[in-house]
Amino acid sequence: MPATADRARPGPASVDAFVDSLRPHLDAVARVARRFAPPSDADDVAQEALLAAWRYRGRYRPDRGTFRAWLLAIVFTESRKAAGRRYRNEQLLTDLAHGLVSDARGDGRPPPDHEALERAIAALSRRQREVVGLYYFVDLPLDEVAAVLGVSPGTVKSALSEARNRIRHLLGSVQ
Amino acid sequence: VTVDIDDLLRRSGEQWRARHSAPLALPDFEEKTVSAPRRGARRGFLIPMAAAAATVAVIAVVLVLRAPTGVPVAGGPTGTGSPAATAPGTPTRSDVTSPSPLPSSSVPTSPPARPADCAAAQLSGSVDANRTGTIAGAESVVILLRNGGPAACWLGGVPTLSGQTASGSTVPLGYAGSADPGYADPGPAGGPGPVAAGADGAIHLTLQVNNCSKPGTRYAKLLIQLRPGQVVSMPFPAELAVSGCPGYVAQAGPVVS
């Protein structure tokens, strides 16, 4: 039944076609993994997520969203799982320290504002950290943040607003 | 000093992207689709694959046991093929983002037995020093609840916390409880679930340190009320006395390892 088979596997059928469909989104894929996976494993996590996307390409449904959002949701999920394993197996504070140290590489020292801001972000709730990371750092538009997290754009706006308020409070500044 | 947080975040995001702009190498899709998964993937896929295999085995046993003698089992060698059957090569593992349920229309479903709720008497509390500390002015505290009973017990729900003075009077500590992980991070707790005998459950809570002018109080004991009549008592952690501004307490649950 060709029609059924087509519906069951609407994603790119060949490796070449799949890779072609990936290329425009590789920067975003890398940024999601590098933002949410443990720093030492980020690129491995991204590659594993791409392989998972290839294996499950038949599950992509164009009527439910863009290929980019579907792909980034897989990368995000795998990154969060990897970070969760690391969180449980090691120490959160050690990870944060490593993240800051690795950020400092290249120019010697992290910018003071950046360090304080990252620490404030680390003190946010998980949902707030996720929307801040996807919106400000990965640089996704609001609707893509919502699609990746599986929530409404209104929820993202609300979480962003709460996160900004809390960061403002944590940094001790008054607008 | 007035700081535009939105502008600060945008500038920080730009700087972060500039530092993380190295191109991502593509995996070898041809090789990986026929060879064993990478080491990292093997760890990640082993548990769900084993669980899926065990589930299928249980379903098969149930079907065989319930099938009348002489009646072919659905999907068996003499069947004509189930509509849910997958083509060769089609992945059978659940989707990463939207797991598909196993066919259950012909299988009597019986939820896994849930152990009895944890009784306060079988739990002993302690602070998880490895996961406790101050970040950007917020103290993050993880309290472990070890199941000292002879069998697994069920741990869940948002506890209420009180301090007990040396004279025995109790004072509510005022932590805002939430079961929403988006607002009260459960930390190492994996949501409600069974805690094996000898294993740990956990409660994650936060309190504000910066911008808090109220001094903390060092009570003699911390009382953790899991539900009415079930209160775990433990020495009051010094970490909870660093300020008088309690934040959130998240839902209790077994530590996910």
Description:
- The complex is a heterodimer of chains A (175) and B (257).
- Helices cover 71% and strands 0% of the residues of chain A.
- With 175 residues, chain A is an all-alpha fold.
- Chain B has 257 residues and is of the alpha+beta class.
- Helices cover 19% and strands 25% of the residues of chain B.
- Chain B contains 3 helices and 13 strands, in the order αααβββββββββββββ.
- Chain B has helices spanning 5-19, 29-34, 39-66; strands at residues 123-127, 133-135, 138-147, 153-155, 160-164, 170-172, 176-178, 193-195, 200-208, 221-227, 230-235, 245-250, 253-254.
- In chain B, strands 1, 2, 3, 7, 9, 12 and 13 form a 7-stranded mixed β-sheet that branches.
- The longest helix of chain B is centred in the N-terminal third of the chain and has 28 residues, at 39-66.
- Chain B starts with a helix and ends with a strand.
- The model of chain B is unreliable at 33-45 and 68-109 (pLDDT under 50).
- Chains A and B meet through α2, α3, α4, α5 and α6 of A and α1, α2 and α3 of B.
Q: Gist?
A:
The complex is a heterodimer of chains A (175) and B (257). Helix content of chain A is 71%, strand content 0%.
Element string of chain A (H = helix, E = strand): HHHHHHHHHH
N-to-C span of chain B: 44 Å
- Radius of gyration of chain B (Å): 25 Å
Helix amount of chain A: over 70%
Q: How does the helix and strand content of chain B classify structurally?
A: alpha+beta
Order of helices and strands of chain B: HHHEEEEEEEEEEEEE
The global form of chain B is flat
What count of helical segments of chain A does DSSP give?
A: 10
Strand segment count of chain A: 0
Rounded average pLDDT of chain B: 74
Question: From the alpha-carbon coordinates, what is the Rg of chain A to the nearest angstrom?
Answer: 18 Å
For the biggest sheet of chain B, the summary is: 7 strands, mixed
Please, what is the oligomeric state? heterodimer
DSSP E strands of chain B, number: 13
Helix content of chain B: 10-25%
Question: Structural class of the helices, strands and pairings of chain A?
Answer: mainly alpha
Uncertain runs of chain B: 33-45, 68-109
Cα end-to-end separation of chain A: 63 Å
Label the overall shape of chain A.
globular
